[in-house]
Amino acid sequence: MKKDAPPKIPDVVVPPTGVERIVAAIGSTRSLLVHTGIFAVSFLTALVGLIEWDRMLLILTTLVSLEAIYLSLLIQITVNRHTQSLKEVEEDIEEIQEDVEELGEDMEDIQEDLEEISEDIEEISEDIEEIQEDVEELNVEDDDEPTAKTSKTKSKKPTKAETLEQLTKDVQRVLKDLEALKNSK
Questions:
Q1: Residue 1 counted as domain residue
Q2: Is residue 112, in this structure, part of any structural domain at all?
């Protein structure tokens, strides 16, 4: 019998938030080039004399400081979101581990039940063999009795041999039912 593959759990893709998009954009190569260009233009304007060095450095330092503050806040928001997501995954893993442990215990119980059923089947088989031997002995005894007496007995009630044969058939049927139960698990 072919085992079915476990159902595939769909990948859950959480769309990035606005904060994550901003952090990703700032951490890109394009952002590096833009920042480098801004710094170069700032220094060039001071070198050419369009703006004083002190004023350029003050504006540049203020912008860089504000950018650093906002970046650290945005990054912390992203880290917090990822931490929460990891906690949820951790809880899911713990639940899965508990389920696996329960399945293992259930398998052990089923194995014990199968062993008990096997032992019961062996005992029933032994009982059937003993009953068959008794039937054979009774058949031999019935063959030794006179035929007139046997025909009277048969007409009134079944002989011991017939009763034992019927019992044997019943026990064999029960044995087949037990085998079917065992195979269905």
A1: no
A2: yes
- Residues 25, 30: Cα–Cα separation, whole Å: 8
Q: What is the pLDDT of residue 66?
A: 93
What is the C-alpha to C-alpha distance for residues 179 and 183, in angstroms, rounded to an integer?
A: 6
Q: Which residue has the tokens 């906002």?
A: 70
What is the residue range of 151's domain?
A: 18-184
How many domains, in total, are found in the chain?
1
Q: Residue 145: what pLDDT?
A: 60
- Give the chain's residues under pLDDT 50: 1-2, 153-154
Sign of CA dihedral 91, 6, 109, 104: negative
Q: Per the structure block, which two tokens stand in for 173?
A: 């049927």
Q: Would 7 be classed as within a structural domain?
A: no
Query: Mutual orientation of helices 18-26 and 29-48 as an angle, nearest 10°?
Result: 60
> What phi, psi does 110 have (nearest 5°)?
-65, -40
Give this prediction's pTM: 0.43
Do residues 63 and 34 make contact, with C-beta atoms less than 8 angstroms apart? no
Q: Are 175 and 121 in contact (CB under 8 A)?
A: yes
pLDDT score for 1: 43
- Is 2 inside a domain boundary? no
Is 164 buried (19+), middle (13-18) or exposed (0-12) by CB count in 10 A?
buried
